[in-house]
Amino acid sequence: MPKRTDLKSILIIGAGPIVIGQACEFDYSGAQACKALRDEGYRVILVNSNPATIMTDPETADVTYIEPITWRMVEKIIEKERPDALLPTMGGQTALNCALDLAKNGVLDKYGVEMIGAKKEAIDKAEDREKFKNAMAKIGLESARSALAHSLEEALQVQAMVGFPTVIRPSFTLGGTGGGIAYNMEEFVAICERGLEASPTKELLIEESVLGWKEYEMEVVRDKADNCIIICSIENLDPMGVHTGDSITVAPAQTLTDKEYQILRDASIACLREIGVETGGSNVQFAINPADGRMVIIEMNPRVSRSSALASKATGFPIAKIAAKLSVGYTLDELANEITGGATPASFEPTIDYVVTKVPRFAFEKFPQADDRLTTQMKSVGEVMAIGRNFQESLQKALRGLEVGVDGFNLKSVDMEKIEDELAYPRAERLWYVADAFGVGMSLEEIHRFTRIDPWFLAQIKDLVDTELAIEKRTLAEQSADELRELKRKGFSDRRLAYLWKTTEHEVRKRRHALGIRPVYKRVDTCAAEFATDTAYLYSTYDEEDEAAPTGKRKIMVLGGGPNRIGQGIEFDYCCVHAALALREDGFETIMVNCNPETVSTDYDTSDRLYFEPLTLEDVLEIVDREKPEGVIVQFGGQTPLKLARDLEAAGVPIIGTTPDAIDKAEDRERFQQMLHELGLRQPPNRTARTTDAALEAAREIGYPVVVRPSYVLGGRAMEIVHAESDLVRYMKEAVKVSNDSPVLIDRFLNDAIEVDVDAVSDGKAVIIGGIMEHIEQAGVHSGDSACSLPPFSLSEALKDELRRQTVAMARGLGVCGLMNVQFAIQDDKVFVLEVNPRASRTVPYVSKAIRTPLAKVAARCMAGRSLADQGVTKEVIPPYYSVKEAVFPFIKFPGVDTILGPEMKSTGEVMGVGETFAEAFVKSQLAAGVRLPRSGKAFLSVRDQDKARAVEVGRTLAGLGFSLVATKGTADALEAAGLVVQRVNKVMEGRPHVVDMIRNKEISLIVNTVEEDRRSVRDSWSIRNSALQMRVTYYTTISGARAACVGLQHLEELRPYDLQGLHATIP
Fold it and tell me: What is the pTM of this model?
């Protein structure tokens, strides 16, 4: 069937902010869907609250709404835009749940909107655990023994039937949120209570555990004519019991016989037919008992999923693009495969002649109180993918691409007890402990008994460990060319070999080049090189034949940001994509180097040539040598490429834009101070220290409280506000681990200051301000975690002009060419410079959307030699509306973690709200971030002394809105003195009934809780914030956040949706 002509406009719902379990793979699928449907001539309307995405760029869809993804808001958009159809399968669980809400509340019927891609019945059948189980039984596929429960009583009855260990899976949630594995009754009750809260339908599936079984996934695409193709099979190295998003996964499956593979293939196609997924990509998960071959089906996702992004990147088959076209009536045989230039139709199953390995990246160092064991609830924040000719090569490439300080199987421990514990309980580093276990002589059978990892994988790892032990006894000079080539084929990095041979990476590289051992580049082409391809999607390997075929064009190379993590996320990928697009438009050939499978930057048509490689010095130098670009951009991918800048420059790589020396000048405390001194600018009193004694001396001179942090880190890693000497001593002991030999920076902490971010762009001569953002939280909260407003909501014109003057002066002083971000603190109308980053920062996408100017594109053109005037960027744009950015946090995933905000960044993503007033924009940003502002009830206040005066103002506003006030002793005194009526309540230490009892009994609807930054106060009030999080009560941990919420509460009238293109038209 050719495409449908009865549809004219299609609404796509995005996935919203980046949270654990739903990351930027949905930006990739959503952007592809928009592109595919517009190519077919449809009018595309997009709603997504996340400004840091390519899909919310005004060019991606015809009409773009950066609005909260709630069914009421989407209903208003439907009423305004009147789309013919809704495509709900591109925005993860968020979009599916929103689409189901729209259907349930009669919105789709009311406006005659058809759901395409997946029908409501199919979504229900796949997502509703009970219906799914019955459907599978009907076609003879076994599921794990299980039953549904809607209350704790029912759950306990089911548990008695299935026995321990028990798996709990809440319905309609994402990344296993709220679920887990219980080994005893106490754990079971705790997880069920959490799960019932997390499930929107208050429904749990309680099932028998298949712990230790092998887990497989099949990525399947089906069309209306019932053509089904398997894109690829994926095998989890970690057995069942670890969420697939937290597992190391390998494609294609390595340990299946052909007969077993065919059984899985037939089963997954039968599953799609029974569920009734008419069109598009789905992902089906199986568990197989290695003892007797019993197979059970675990679940299927009737939408484009995290695994679809991986399968797309692993095979080169653009699942989301094809799925979007199938949803409007095409069949697979009518669509051409773009990678082979149309030599094959899309109905050809991809074949791959290489191995792909994905390894997850975790952020437990940000949450020291969190339980770091891996279970059925996803905890990883990013992932890295690598391609090699064999499993060993692709695994070792992935490990060095992770950026967790390893070059391969670096030693973690030789302590037997520690190793056994790490093997038995999977944590983030289990794979390295497996290698250590072989190193200390444990047998393959023993390790298999502890870990249940398939013996085939264990044998591969054992071989790598044995190889290391053997070559350690010799030196670099003794290696023959054949031996060295063999090591490179197993994926050993130069750095790892240098460590084993006690020499330098540089020496190993020199020797390797002298012997003529260089990598060749192979193409990912979906057809195992059976047809020629023009698509330059490449990976390196130490094989015979090279397929790179570089051109002689003018070219610029962009280094990406590597795996997502807290502090370095999709915002940097956004900048890299913009650089590639802008320079491509200007006639350069663009080359992207990155190893993150979730992102738009690693889409094969974002740049002219894509190298899917780890971002290490060795890998980048080899690509530069092959391609010989005239310029390399390192300033857009966050800290990842910046770390390589000095070494690349030393090796003669042409780095364009702001020089590595200028970047170093901004990072290096002494040099930066000297520059500010020359420019006559102020910074908080500060010192640097390398030892504990020096630090104590410095803190005495400056005066407490002080902010301490290691130099050269991103996302406020290991930053702390310290109030007392004892804390400083402890900090110095711990911080040395993070920064090794760099000094620790100590600043005077500015109390009650307003923090402001300024983004600017420069061509080396002219400097234009991109935006001035006023933070809502006071200084001391990391800028990535703070909400902020553009334009500022309280700064005077004189102050703004002073900020502009200082920003321009620093840009000139550093010789910036490209992007720059400055953080200021304003205390009593005095301006202090906190830090300057002469590179892309995480606010660039948000500012670009707010001011209609794509700053990253402008900056990339400046770096390639075009002036700002030539691009028509001549003055600062001040929009006539407000845009508020709010951060989104992963606290609910980590029971026991404190939700208090500080100088270390903890947010995983962001949302944006727009409105004619600050209040309207702020309310929308809260809604989009999932914070529900209550309209009435009891408001609990407990604040530190310095916030008491402002707490009175908050209390008065709340009382005026009809809330009744509850407070602890000190705060209650202040409120009563101001003539307010207050109910007093005990602090936790003052005996029961206390405030936590009130929260647990659901008596409180809003909490404002601020504490002194010293450790004891934070610890004492932890239970208040923790119970607020568990009971889903709206809470604010800063007084400025609470004041903004009050402003918002006064303006909770009807919220209107604004389209981005319409807003941009109002900018003068």
Answer: 0.92
